[in-house]
Structure formats: C-alpha cells, structure tokens
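From the pipeline queue, job 12 of 40. The input is one protein chain; the requested action is below.

Action: predict structure.
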Amino acid sequence: QVHLVESGGDLVQAGGSLRLSCAASGNIFSLIAMAWYRQPPGNERELVASITSGGTPNYADSVKGRFTISKDNAQRTVYLQMNSLKPEDTAVYYCNLNMWDGRASQRYWGQGTQVTVSS
C-alpha cells in the first residue's frame, strides 16, 4: 500500500507564492509519474502538473510559467512551487502517484491540502 501526505496549503494574497509538498511512503514498485491535481469549489478535479519518473514535467495551460513541479527521489517527495498566485487558483490540491505493480497501473491519492488566494 502507498500513502501520500500533502502539506503547504495556506491562505495567501494574490501575487504571492506557496510551495506544496507531497511525501510518499509504502511499497512503490515502478513509478510511472507523480502529479498535482486541484478541485476548485463546485468544480471537477483537474490536472495541474505532472512529472514522470525520468523527470519530464507537464503543465496545464492555466499554470504554465507560474508553477513548477519537481521531485526528490531520495526523499520520495514531489513539490509544487506556485508563484504569481491568482484567486482562480483557489482549490483543494491533491497529490497523485501512478505506478506499475507488475500487473497493472495503480493510482493513489493524498487527502488534499487547501489553497486559498485572496484578491
């Protein structure tokens, strides 16, 4: 079983910055990618950024140039540096881990961390 714990969510003013962290523990056999998703109030969950096991990042158009995803393999942690935050970035942010267990792809989710951006 894999366990993900997010941290770093907070209330921040527009234009500010936050850094989210997601620490993974458990039996991670063959990592495919890790990602950050977010779910704004009243909306569906959406992909924010992802990073492959090889370190290739991918971003939603809405955050390109403002957010940076990175990972520390030794610490089994993925980060999301968020700069120039906007009120529309307000959401619960979830960490996701996608791995191959030898038979199938498995996805795991963290419990979420709240990011609120005030105007």
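Job complete. The chain has no helices and eleven strands.
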